[in-house]
Each structure stands twice: as structure tokens, then as C-alpha cells.
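Re: that chain you flagged

S.,

Sorry for the slow reply, it's been a week of failed gels. I finally had a moment to sit down with the sequence you sent. For the record, here it is as I used it:
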Amino acid sequence: MRIQQWPQRERPREKLLEQGPQALSDAELLAIFLRTGVAGTNAVDLARQLLNRFGGLRALVSAKQHEFCSAKGLGQAKYVQLQAVMEMARRYLAEALQREQAFTSAEDTRAYLISRMRDEPNELFAMLLLDSQHRLITFKPMFQGTIDAASVYPRVLVKTALDLHAAAVILAHNHPSGVAEPSQADQQITRRIIDAMALVDIRVLDHFVIGDGVAVSFAERGLL
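Prediction finished late last night. Pasting the C-alpha cells below so you have them in one place:
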């Protein structure tokens, strides 16, 4: 049955306008993005098929271009649109941090870091560089690969912070396994970075470990 033949309050667009986007299922939200179905399949049913194929909304959103474009009802235009939407969401979160004091808005910080780092296939070590009011200057990816004492260089972090006139930093790295528990190596390199930054009077306010939809704060754990 075509969506136009559904009761009006059950149609995804009308439902969103009446109840808000939080009332919609993943398939209904995806159907609005798709706009149309394919021959013999309406947009909601197509959305359900795509979610089943990819294993969920997150997997679909993070799929590689060739895999995404090969799916029925998708293609390069939809891929470009989706990437634009995701980038707008990331920039929205970045602007939220720029308007607020980053460290006192821990939830905004956590949400932004999760959106930037949770789907990285390899470990990524990054910094949020902050001004004297703890407002965001920029997000800076620094190192990729296995994060340990041999692959993270405190002197490079210090130089970057000085070059960008940062007064404080928040460290972050992801665990591609999805488990966000800080390791002993994480704690050791954090201490080395804190000591190096202290020599040039730059504070390390926190270190977040990013997992699958969760970010563990060293400050909240009492590990700084």
C-alpha cells in the first residue's frame, strides 16, 4: 500500500509534524530521508529492508560509499545528501561547544566526541583545544593507530597547543572494540601529557575514551 493511502496521522511526515521526530521509528525517519520508495515498495518498507540489510541505522549511516550506493533505493545522490546531513550535525554540536564553556558542558563535549570518533575504524587520538575561558578553538586529530606510549608524543601535543594559543586541552581517543574502559596504558600516557603541558602552563581538563555510544571521562573517574 502506498503511504498516501495510510491514515494521515500514521504517515511519517505528518506524524513528525504532529508529535515531533522523537516519536518516529528508525524506519520512519529513514523513509523521510529517502522521500520515495521503489517499484512495488513504499518508502517505509524500503527503509525497513535497508535497516535489515545493514543491521541498523548506525551501520547504514557509517557504511562505505560503494556499499551504500549498491543497495536498492540508494545511490550516489543519497550518499552525498546523507554525508551532508551528518556533517551538519557534527558542526551543530561543535557550535554548541563554542557557545558554551566546554568543560562545564560535559554532555555537549561527550556528544560531540562520540559523533566525531565512535565510527573510526582505527584508534584515533585527538585534542579539543580551548581558550582561557575554556571555549572551543578547534578539534584536532593528532595520532592514528594503536594508542600507547610509543605512538603518542607529548611534545607534538604541546607544540600544537602552543601554536594554536590554547590555554587548556581535553584529550580524547576511541576504542574501536566499543569498550570504553581506560587501560593502564591510557592512564600512563595521560600522566605524561599532563606533566608535559604543565611545563608550558597549559591545563589538561579531561581525557575521554570513546566507545560504542559511550564516552568515559577520566575526570569523572578521578583518574586525572
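What I noticed first: Residues 3-74 form one domain.

Talk soon,
D.
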